[in-house]
């Protein structure tokens, strides 16, 4: 218990250090550049303390649950030796975590407004809602497929850059064809798909797979899943923009 | 009291986000792999900590940082700050008028990336897997520098109104060139660090800055030009992480050469 407490205090101090840059930047711009006092200082201090505490708890929980869980599952899948279940797991993990992602929901709604404003779809509530839902499904599908391809890559030991550069070619090609209104959203949708809970799990899964297969280096083969999962949504969203 | 209700709502929202993940994990563990979860109490406590931690973190950001950050983004892009009190709307401007905006964009990009929980997670893993050659803080610093440059450049793009894809495609070309010359072991990690930079902390502040800029500059549409900053923030870390690896490789080689030449002379 004492060890845990000590560990917690250490991570508390670390979190405080992590947040120091934000505090400095905001204080500098508010006081020196804009030359304005801090509004509601009390609220800011309380919020800051919550952020520090929250970050410490998150990192603690990460080490206790998410990392071991992801790696343990990767080992079990390899030991079981059933490729289809592993691929199914990768797909469900990618699809399931993305479809409910709040950042994606927000971006899909904005995209529907742009599409309606540009006359691509009718500017009516049902048309916008179905466009936004379709977009979410497309992005989730893209992430699911990306994880499946990424897992196959780890199993086969392909170098990651072939996939990524292939993806870039796809993005550039689609940019030339897609309607210009969709390009900004498509590029951004790549970044928002990978949430704070998904990233540690996916990283642990990749590293677990790479370290349980002989001849794979966890550093070289284990990483790369997240990169691929943030690339395919761009292509899929631009394709969606072309079709609708 | 209101705050307590709000906190409850945030937690509830997070539970809803995490529920599908938990169902997938437990479903596969029990139905497909057919083996019990190792150390279920520890995993359970850990998951609760993750949830509680994220809820506190987000709530604290909403209370302290986001309103202030958004306000500052608005004030910095307001014509009265940039062109003096009497200016109401901007008719003529030069991209250099927005110098403070670029500095703020870079500084806030750097600072929020250092605090990004997903990046901390990946850095911890990279440190473990590399046997300590990649340090947690070294990687985070490299990524944060990349985000800072990316967001500052994204702000510049909004001010000048140049097309987004020129920048992104140029970035891709740089990434491909670096891939050919950077140490092989860093490449997957560098690619991944692009995706993890932009989650909970960076996106809301950076998006507010983009929208504020696009709203006040004549000829920019918030819908078309307000987007794209996140794309910048996820592209440049790849470049900076590979550059970091190249730099440290070059330095070790330099040191080794210096050592061998000094032993030759002695």
The structural class of chain B is: mainly alpha
Over the alpha carbons, how many angstroms does the gyration radius of chain A reach?
Answer: 22 Å
Oligomeric grouping of the chains = heterodimer
Overall domain count of chain A: 2
How many E-type strands of chain A?
0
Query: What percentage of residues of chain A falls in helices of 4 or more residues?
Result: over 70%
Q: SS-based structural class of chain A?
A: mainly alpha
Low-confidence stretches of chain B: none
Shape of chain B: flat
The mean pLDDT of chain B is 80
SSE string of chain A, helices as H and strands as E = HHHHHHHHHH
The mean pLDDT of chain A is 83
Distance separating the two termini of chain B: 75 Å
Our measurement of the CA-to-CA distance between the termini of chain A, rounded to an integer number of angstroms, reads 58 Å
Largest sheet: number of strands, sense, barrel closure of chain A: none
Assign an overall shape of chain A.
flat
How does this model look, in words?
The complex is a heterodimer of chains A (244) and B (266). Chain A is mainly α and 244 residues long. Chain A has two domains: 1-65, no CATH class; 82-243, no CATH class. Chain A is 85% helix and 0% strand. In chain A, helix 4 packs antiparallel against helix 7. The radius of gyration of chain A is 22 Å and the shape is flat. The N and C termini of chain A lie far apart (58 Å). Chain B has two domains: 1-63, no CATH class; 78-265, no CATH class. Chain B has eleven helices and no strands. Chain B has 266 residues and is mainly alpha-helical. Chains A and B meet through helix 1, helix 2, helix 3, helix 4 and helix 6 of A and helix 1, helix 2, helix 4, helix 5 and helix 7 of B.
């Amino acid at each position: 218990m004492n060890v845990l407490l000590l560990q917690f205090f250490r991570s508390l101090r670390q979190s405080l250090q992590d947040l120091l840059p934000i505090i400095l930047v905001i204080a500098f711009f508010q006081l020196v550049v804009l030359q304005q006092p801090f509004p509601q200082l009390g609220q800011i201090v309380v919020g800051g303390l919550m952020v520090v505490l929250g970050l410490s708890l998150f990192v603690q929980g990460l080490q206790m649950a998410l990392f071991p869980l992801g790696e343990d599952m990767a080992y079990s899948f390899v030991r079981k030796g059933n490729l289809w279940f592993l691929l199914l797991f990768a797909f469900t993990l990618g699809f399931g975590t993305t479809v409910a992602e709040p950042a994606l929901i927000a971006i899909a709604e904005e995209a529907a407004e742009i599409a309606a404003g540009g006359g691509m779809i009718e500017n009516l509530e049902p048309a916008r809602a179905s466009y936004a839902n379709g977009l979410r499904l497309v992005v989730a599908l893209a992430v699911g497929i990306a994880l499946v391809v990424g897992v196959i890559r780890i199993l086969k030991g392909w170098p990651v850059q072939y996939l990524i550069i292939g993806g870039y070619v796809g993005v550039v090609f689609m940019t030339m064809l897609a309607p210009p209104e969709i390009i900004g959203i498509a590029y951004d949708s790549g970044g928002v798909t990978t949430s704070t809970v998904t990233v540690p799990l996916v990283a642990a899964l990749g590293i677990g797979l790479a370290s349980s297969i002989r001849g794979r280096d966890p550093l070289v083969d284990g990483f790369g899943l997240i990169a691929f999962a943030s690339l395919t949504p761009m292509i899929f969203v631009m394709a969606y923009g072309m079709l609708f | 009291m209101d705050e307590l209700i709000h906190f409850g709502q945030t937690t509830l929202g997070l539970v809803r986000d995490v529920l599908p993940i938990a169902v997938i994990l437990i479903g596969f563990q029990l139905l497909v792999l057919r083996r019990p979860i190792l150390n279920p109490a520890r995993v359970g406590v850990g998951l609760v900590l993750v949830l509680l931690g994220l809820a506190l973190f987000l709530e604290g950001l909403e209370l302290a940082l986001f309103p202030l950050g958004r306000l500052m983004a608005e004030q910095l892009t307001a014509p009265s700050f940039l062109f003096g009190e009497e200016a109401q709307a901007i008719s003529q401007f030069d991209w250099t008028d927005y110098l403070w905006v670029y500095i703020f964009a870079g500084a806030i990009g750097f600072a929020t990336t250092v605090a990004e929980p997903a990046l901390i997670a990946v850095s911890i893993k990279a440190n473990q897997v590399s046997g300590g050659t990649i340090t947690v803080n070294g990687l985070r610093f490299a990524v944060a520098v990349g985000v800072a440059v990316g967001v500052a450049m994204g702000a510049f793009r909004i001010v000048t109104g140049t097309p987004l894809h020129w920048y992104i495609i140029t970035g891709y070309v740089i990434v491909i060139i670096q891939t050919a010359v950077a140490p092989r072991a860093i490449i997957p990690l560098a690619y991944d660090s692009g995706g993890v930079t932009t989650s909970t902390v960076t996106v809301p502040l950076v998006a507010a800055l983009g929208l504020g800029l696009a709203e006040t500059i004549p000829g920019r549409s918030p819908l078309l030009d307000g987007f794209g900053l996140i794309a910048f923030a996820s592209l440049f870390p790849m470049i900076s992480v590979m550059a970091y690896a190249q730099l440290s490789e070059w330095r070790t080689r330099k040191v080794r050469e210096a050592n061998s030449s000094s032993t030759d002379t002695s």
